[in-house]
């Protein structure tokens, strides 16, 4: 059986390197590449891959929200997060969104084939540097019956926040999300009220801090 894989990363050099690596394995085929999260969601819908390798920091729709949408529509698709960050918040967000694996970019070419084989066998895979902080954090909070990773924003609010913080106007965000401008403005108002912010600059700082968007994009 040949595994169908989608590579989603906004850096072509990363996609090219991973494609070259994976296609050395006769049981793996890269069927598509995406440079932003929204394209990755559409490709997953059209191609029904076995695995999506998903960069977290991408324009238009970040990897966390893209993963959430893919898993909501197609639970059988496995998602492996790809990130520069081992911070527990990034790892927790992706696992909560439905990812089965988390691979750090600095070890991706060493670990990716192993990670793909692990998740398609209904397992999980975390790069060692990413696993330790998340395990420690989970053990601490779960022992208290708490979860420090829950976001106060809904998935749609997080989508709107990303688009606005990346410089899109309400009209542009409305077009991308197929919503009315009034609905986008309502989401914006609710976001600012929930977070007790008064400016777009505050929202942008929050979006970066929470991994919703990235200065690297």
Tell me what you see in this structure.
This protein is of the alpha/beta class and 217 residues long. It folds into 2 domains: 140 residues, Rossmann fold (3-Layer(aba) Sandwich), CATH 3.40.50.2300; 55 residues, Arc Repressor Mutant, subunit A (Orthogonal Bundle). The chain is 53% helix and 14% strand. It is built from 10 helices and 6 strands, in the order E-H-E-H-E-H-E-H-E-H-E-H-H-H-H-H. It has a 6-stranded parallel sheet with strand order 2-1-3-4-5-6, sandwiched between helices. Strand 3, helix 3 and strand 4 form a beta-alpha-beta unit. Helix 7 crosses helix 10 and helix 8 crosses helix 9. The longest helix has 15 residues. It is globular, with a radius of gyration of 17 Å. The protein starts with a strand and ends in an 8-residue tail after the last helix.
